[in-house]
Fold this sequence. Notes:
- This protein is α+β, with helices and mostly antiparallel strands.
- The chain is built from 13 helices and nine strands.
Amino acid sequence: MQLDPRSTSFGRxxxxxxxxxxxxxxxxxxEEDPQTLHKPEIAMIKLGVGRNMVNAIQYWLQTTGIxxxxxxxxxxxxxxxMIFAADYNGGDPYLEDDATLWIVHWLIASNATQATGFFxxxxxxxxxxxxxxxxxxxLTDFVNNTLNQKKRSQNTLKSDISAITRMYAAVPxxxxxxxxxxxxxxxxxxxxPHSGYRSLRTNRPFLPVxxxxxxxSQRFAAEPEQxxxxxxxxxxxxDGKASPGAIFRLSESGFMEKLEQLMxxxxxxxxLRDTAGVNQLYRxxxxxxxxxxxxxxxxxxx
Length: 302
């Protein structure tokens, strides 16, 4: 949620982007046996993947906040149970709901500690069109000059660039569609025949307002002493904090339209005010925590 140069991570996905089925299957496996991910031979059979993929599945489960790991093994978080557990009412155990996918994306791209490369791309990299080479140059500059980590391996940074583009960009002619990430459906990165890729800020009318509600609630929860957050920070994230506007690739007009829609639906949760010339979003008296937002959404979707 907040970038800290002392706590960063690159390339821990073993070069594997998040794939269809990994989060549900990984969650189910650790619910059956919390030690599954610590038993590679058993995990390989149960999950139907190779050893490196087992590590990648564990990484994505942790990065999305679906599980935590300690000496006693892996344990489902309340968030993980809310989405995947069969004994919860509602939920989205097969990741079929667009709102869940947008929230999974937010959880990854806002995780500055465990997915620093993804956090950098969605919160700090502003070029609308780019190539793999330009992305690597941008990430290298960020690592060297902002994080002051000049000894980072170029191969590690390249693996993050590859994971970002493969996880979000649907590439024409690819023959392994069944293995692609569900996040390609969000349209946040597209193949561009002229410059490699494009990632444009747009109005995104199909962004579920619940995803923005969840993200804003997490931002407020991360700063409980703050009654309001600057709209600029929420739009651009140039203060080292996760930005819903940037992560969802919303234009300014698109962000404000979604915010107006959100405030119309939940009038007691947010209020926009101009304070001393600064446009700020105030937390309302009835702003729920992120899990309550998700629970209400799933129950109302039944």
